[in-house]
Amino acid sequence: xxxxxxxxxxxxxxxxxxxxxxxxxxxxxxxxxxxxxxxxxxxxxxxxxxxxxxxxxxxxxxxxxxxxxxxxxxxxxxxxxxxxxxxxxxxxxxxxxxxxxxxxxxxxxxxxxxxxxxxxxxxxxxxxxxxxxxxxxxxxxxxxxxxxxxxxxxxxxxxxxxxxxxxxxxxxxxxxxxxxxxxxxxxxxxxxxxxxxxxxxxxxxxxxxxxxxxxxxxxxxxxxxxxxxxxxxxxxxxxxxxxxxxxxxxxxxxxxxxxxxxxxxxxxxxxxxxxxxxxxxxxxxxxxxxxxxxxxxxxxxxxxxxxxxxxxxxxxxxxxxxxxxxxxxxxxxxxxxxxxxxxxxxxxxxxxxxxxx
Amino acid sequence: xxxxxxxxxxxxxxxxxxxxxxxxxxxxxxxxxxxxxxxxxxxxxxxxxxxxxxxxxxxxxxxxxxxxxxxxxxxxxxxxxxxxxxxxxxxxxxxxxxxxxxxxxxxxxxxxxxxxxxxxxxxxxxxxxxxxxxxxxxxxxxxxxxxxxxxxxxxxxxxxxxxxxxxxxxxxxxxxxxxxxxxxxxxxxxxxxxxxxxxxxxxxxxxxxxxxxxxxxxxxxxxxxxxxxxxxxxxxxxxxxxxxxxxxxxxxxxxxxxxxxxxxxxxxxxxxxxxxxxxxxxxxxxxxxxxxxxxxxxxxxxxxxxxxxxxxxxxxxxxxxxxxxxxxxxxxxxxxxxxxxxxxxxxxxxxxxxxxxxxxxxxxxxxxxxxxxx
Lengths: 357, 374
Prior knowledge:
The complex is a heterodimer of chains A (about 350) and B (about 375).
Chain A: H1 2-24, E1 26-31, H2 41-56, E2 61-66, H3 73-84, E3 89-92, H4 98-107, E4 112-116, E5 126-131, H5 133-147, E6 152-157, H6 162-176, E7 183-188, H7 195-207, E8 212-215, H8 221-229, E9 232-237, E10 248-254, H9 257-269, E11 276-279, E12 286-288, H10 296-310, E13 321-322, E14 328-330, H11 338-342, E15 351-352
Parallel strand pairs in A: 1-2, 1-3, 3-4, 4-5, 5-11, 6-7, 6-8, 7-15, 8-9, 9-10
Antiparallel strand pairs in A: 10-12, 13-14
Helix pairs in contact in A: 2-9, 3-4, 5-6, 5-10, 7-8
Chain B: E1 2-7, H1 13-37, H2 42-51, H3 57-82, H4 90-107, H5 116-142, H6 146-166, H7 202-219, H8 221-231, H9 233-238, H10 243-270, H11 281-291, H12 296-319, H13 324-341, H14 343-346, E2 347-352
Antiparallel strand pairs in B: 1-2
Helix pairs in contact in B: 1-2, 1-13, 2-12, 3-7, 3-10, 3-11, 3-12, 4-5, 4-6, 4-10, 4-11, 5-6, 5-10, 7-8, 7-12, 11-12, 12-13
């Protein structure tokens, strides 16, 4: 009898320890706009999440995620479901979740929310984060101009939002630093992820005579088309070298791991505060995939450019820079303000395209 | 031994009543197998899918939000399909309704009064109906295939919306992002029970629309006309009904309801126009219309079931950790079994040796080919 009571007591004690531990486990939840198998944007977020879970430990942090959540009315429901299912922090990883994130955050003041690429922080429990991908695009421009024989690159763009326009401009500026006459042709795919459309865009650009392809869409299709046609290309969001071992020059790799580790830890320590982060190469948020398929001198130039940007010595948007129509945007030595960049809606000189307005 | 489907002389009332339940039972079994193969506890999976979304009040609200456009569009489409008008373009009519209804809050944001919302709803209906009138006119005047014309107009509408929100209607304070300004307070469709969740009046409109159309179809001469012209245009003509007017009637009703669904979704659930405002409600509603057997009351149930399958899918992703793809496969299984089991209403399964002779008396059951419009 005594033994039974002891055993029961021990079991109860163990059980309460169990629940205490379960409660201590922090729950981090993620909403992705695409499938985690896109090998681009959502894939890379998910890689960051897995890195975070590995770093902090599966016994301390629990993760949950929803893939392919449409932006709009469905997003609000998905975010609310997370907020109600015991998530301590919810990361919403696409621009279109902005209003939904803020609405739900207003109803759940105890849950932390982090919205990627947006600018609205209507409640103290909402932070925003983004990366300066244009820094990597400048380096790509430098490489493109060094490698191209015809002096024209093809650019597969998604939507004419500031981030994408910024990327095109930075790419052109980087290219012009090597070849002042360098031109860029742009095709708007009007999608973030559609392998068929992206492949068609790549074919159209190559048929127009470009010999370098770069993309601001998420699938590996443009890389594969470039490989078939035997020209060079840049990857997007993740290292796509497997899809073009002889084709990829480099790729802008979004490394969300360090940020996710930092923010989830902050929730665990109780030090989480609202922030607005726009980290670039210096912060380790933007990483260049290994430089490949290029001569050593180009590689050296790329590495030097990368180092200068990462150290803060050089900003891609440093004057003199003219707008597409030839009027002056930035004077000699003048650096673009972040506020202007975040709402950027014009091309710099050298872009062979009319910006959809 | 051979298994054969033999056409029944009459619809089986028994199977008409129980086939949804048979389908549901098979889905449960198939779902359990699917979840077990993935190494998940099957009961947990099924619970997450079918029960969890119904256990909380907020989730019921979400169910109503998701079901509202499906029901509203579905009942409108049932009029089209019953009268043999193949309107595949409800998605486009939804979008145009949303655009037309949004003119006031987006272009005239300073006009704020209690009149705004009713006007928006009327303009939404008018927009959707006007857009549906295009394939109707083409069909009546030029005998154009309405399946193609209505479907192609979907893409026109989507691209027009895309152009609007990136160009003239873009939010001046929105950092060039493709979206309109947020609707002001008097342009937002209010919540029905704001204390418990965010379901808006769109759901109430959807139920009202279903009830009105149910009455129309089953209790009035117009309903007889719709069904007669659908089953036999020739017989309809002998009865003095005009096929041309029926084409317009069906398209205008369906388009108007799709337009209303569009403006309700934008005004009630989203709060602004965006490049994409529908995850394919106009197409899903075609499934809903047939799941509900083109009966407006059945469509209410079908809309709720399909909405549940979306919510359940999310719940399953979160609580048992299956992927988004598994969830879609499961949703497909559900729809497949429901439609497959409906075969039992018209056919019986015969297991035997001799090939059965097809009885001849059934030819009148075949819908007459649609010839000689106008």
